[in-house]
Amino acid sequence: MDPQSSDKATKEPPRDPSVRIVDTVPEFVLTKQKLGFPSLVALSFNICNSWAGVSSSMQIALLQGGPFALLYGFFVTTSLYLCIALSAAELISVYPTPGGQYHFASILAPRKFTKSISYVCGFISVINWEIIGAAVTIIPCMQILALWQYYHPSFQAKPWHQFVIYEAFGLFVSLYNNLILPKALWTHNLGCKFL
């Protein structure tokens, strides 16, 4: 094999001067995914925990605006999140990176503020994960307390009751994830039935 031809084969294509490379991007092996509509809906519900949000906020929507607000609110929020998804898809198609938001922030930010904006974006993302975890954990606690009050009308709930149930639920989830989940990985597949 000619050494010049091998140099030509490994030579990188010319880059756009307006694009600035921050870090090296790992190479990806592209595989064709065969995901149908039910698979995408199941995957979206599992990733976003939207089932928890819908089930916990349904009574609020029904009380504040009725079925009209519940139905059309779903369409409005879906269209708004579709715009966000299309913007993210455009960024992902141009800059395929596993880092997500903080990589996009570092790539698109002015050179002077690259590290600080990327750090703040990553920090906000981590705080967001913690807040979502706390919010999803408080939902069943509120529902357990509401059911207890419904079936025991003489019971007067105090704020510390909710806190104790919240801590017990958090302890249960931690023990489950650390002790039971490694032995029962099939439980993760329950939510991905359509995949």
Helix/strand-derived category reads: mainly alpha
Low-confidence stretches: none
Residue share in β-strands: under 5%
Task: Tell me the distance between the termini.
Answer: 46 Å
The average pLDDT value, as a whole number, equals 79
Rounded radius of gyration (Å): 24 Å
Number of helices: 7
Largest sheet: none
Following the backbone from N to C, one meets helices and strands in this order, namely HHHHHHH
Which word captures the global form? globular
Number of strands: 0
**Relative helix content:** 55-70%
Helix-strand blueprint:
Blueprint: H1 3-10, H2 37-48, H3 50-64, H4 66-94, H5 101-108, H6 114-151, H7 159-180
Could you characterize what this model shows?
Pfam families: AA_permease_2 (PF13520). GO terms for molecular function: transmembrane transporter activity. With 195 residues, the chain is an all-alpha fold. It has a domain at 115-195. It is built from 7 helices and no strands. The protein has helices at 3-10, 37-48, 50-64, 66-94, 101-108, 114-151, 159-180.
Short description:
By secondary structure, the protein is mostly helical. The chain has helices at residues 3-10, 37-48, 50-64, 66-94, 101-108, 114-151, 159-180.
Notable characteristics:
195 residues, mainly alpha, 7 helices, 68% helix, 0% strand, Choline transport protein
